[in-house]
């Protein structure tokens, strides 16, 4: 596993503008010094990511986040209740915010997250600067929940991969945007919507399709794509389909959670999609997953993985 000298070496690479993949409890991130335009530009190149898609900056604690963004009272309450954890908060940049404008991709806002993973924490402490980090996969592909996934997807494009074992949450952070009228849920994720509503004592709103500036530019319809076509809400596999089960919908070797536990299903989701996809089936059928709690994030990722692909 990881020792102090690995962390120090990674921190040195990052301070010099390099790219280091590191574990978080949601998925692995492809990290760079968020205050350096050149370093952030390297992330876009390595991921082959469209430049308009802004990046999350990671910091060691809520206080550090409060120095970078302008947090309304409700955002402070949510941050203090959930961080460190699987939550990203988007607020307006403070005037003196040192984060590269490339991270905001032309927007006046900034996305901030305090990850809980001990390796991510140690790295952030050692670097002493915010780290920009999208999921450490090529743009549009399945997110990595293990160091091997990063190696397979990015290879030499990343200078160092810190192996912190499998990500325990398994889906990306929930993204919440605060404005005067907010809070808006831009992306479902590791912290269920119900949990956020309970903490804030109000519903988080879904942006309507007219709130174009509130949409997460990263929420493209086709994302997390497997090589094989996916068929969702499938009660059973059809001829030549591999099957990804859930609970009593069980055929073959892969089941997100035999006991029907959504937390276990989220942690298994990307790993099992990677494994099934590597076996090159003609198609993959996926069992119905309930829409409660983490089920919202799981269904969101599955729908994007199943969406028609842009022609390349
Ligand atoms: O769990 C996670 O969030 C992982 C780990 C590594 O922290 N990171 C991650 O980053 O999923 P990424 O880049 O794959 O997704 C970030 C999402 C995208 O949908 C992006 O469009 C959105 O956050 N986003 C970032 N900054 C934004 C902003 N200022 N306004 C609106 N959306 C923003
Ligand atoms: Mg991603």
Description:
This protein has 312 residues and is α/β, with parallel strands linked by helices. 32% of the residues lie in helices and 15% in strands. It has helices at residues 4-15, 37-47, 62-68, 73-82, 101-104, 118-127, 147-154, 193-200, 262-278, 295-306, and strands at residues 20-22, 29-33, 56-58, 69-70, 87-93, 109-113, 131-132, 160-161, 174-177, 184-187, 229-231, 241-244, 283-286. The strands form two sheets. Strands 1, 2, 3, 4, 5, 6, 7, 8, 9 and 10 form a ten-stranded mixed sheet that branches. The chain has a three-stranded parallel sheet with strand order 11-13-12, covered by helices on one side. Helix 9 (262-278) links the parallel strand 12 (241-244) and strand 13 (283-286). The protein is globular and about 60 Å long. The chain binds threonylcarbamoyladenylate and magnesium ion.
Order of helices and strands: HEEHEHEHEHEHEHEEEHEEHEH
User: How many strand elements?
Assistant: 13
Shape: globular
Radius of gyration: 19 Å
Individual helix count: 10
Terminal CA distance: 39 Å
Structural class: alpha/beta
Proportion of strand residues: 15-25%
Main beta sheet strand tally, sense and closure: 10 strands, mixed
**What molecules are bound to this protein?**
threonylcarbamoyladenylate, magnesium ion
What is the topology?
Elements: H1 4-15, E1 20-22, E2 29-33, H2 37-47, E3 56-58, H3 62-68, E4 69-70, H4 73-82, E5 87-93, H5 101-104, E6 109-113, H6 118-127, E7 131-132, H7 147-154, E8 160-161, E9 174-177, E10 184-187, H8 193-200, E11 229-231, E12 241-244, H9 262-278, E13 283-286, H10 295-306
Parallel strand pairs: 1-8, 3-6, 5-9, 11-13, 12-13
Antiparallel strand pairs: 1-2, 2-7, 3-7, 4-5, 5-6, 9-10
The structure holds threonylcarbamoyladenylate and magnesium ion.
């Amino acid at each position: 596993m990881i020792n102090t000298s690995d962390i120090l070496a990674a921190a040195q690479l990052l301070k010099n503008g390099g790219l280091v993949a590191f574990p978080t409890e949601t998925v692995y991130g492809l990290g760079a010094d968020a205050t350096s335009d050149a370093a952030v530009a390297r992330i876009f190149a390595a991921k082959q990511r469209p430049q308009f898609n802004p990046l999350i900056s990671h910091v060691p604690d809520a206080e550090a986040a409060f120095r970078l963004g302008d947090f309304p009272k409700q955002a402070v309450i949510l941050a203090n209740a959930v961080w460190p954890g699987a939550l990203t908060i988007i607020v307006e940049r403070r005037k003196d915010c040192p984060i590269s404008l490339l991270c905001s991709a032309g927007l006046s806002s900034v996305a901030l997250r305090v990850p809980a993973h001990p390796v991510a924490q140690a790295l952030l402490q050692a670097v002493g600067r915010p780290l920009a980090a999208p999921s450490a996969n090529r743009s549009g592909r399945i997110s990595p929940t293990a160091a091997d996934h990063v190696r397979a997807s990015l290879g030499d494009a990343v200078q160092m991969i810190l192996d912190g074992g499998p990500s325990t949450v398994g889906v990306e952070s929930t993204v919440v945007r605060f404005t005067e009228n907010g809070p808006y849920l831009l992306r479902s994720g590791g912290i269920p919507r119900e949990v956020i509503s309970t903490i804030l004592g109000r519903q988080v709103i879904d942006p309507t399709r007219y709130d174009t500036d509130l949409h997460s530019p990263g929420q493209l319809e086709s994302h997390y794509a497997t090589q094989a076509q996916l068929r969702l809400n499938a009660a059973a596999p059809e001829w030549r389909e591999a099957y990804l089960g859930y609970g009593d919908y069980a055929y073959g070797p892969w089941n997100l959670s035999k006991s029907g536990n959504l937390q276990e299903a989220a942690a298994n989701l990307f790993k099992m999609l990677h494994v099934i996809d590597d076996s090159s089936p003609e198609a993959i059928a996926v069992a119905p997953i309930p829409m409660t709690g983490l089920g919202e994030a799981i269904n969101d990722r599955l729908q994007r993985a199943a969406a028609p692909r842009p022609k390349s």
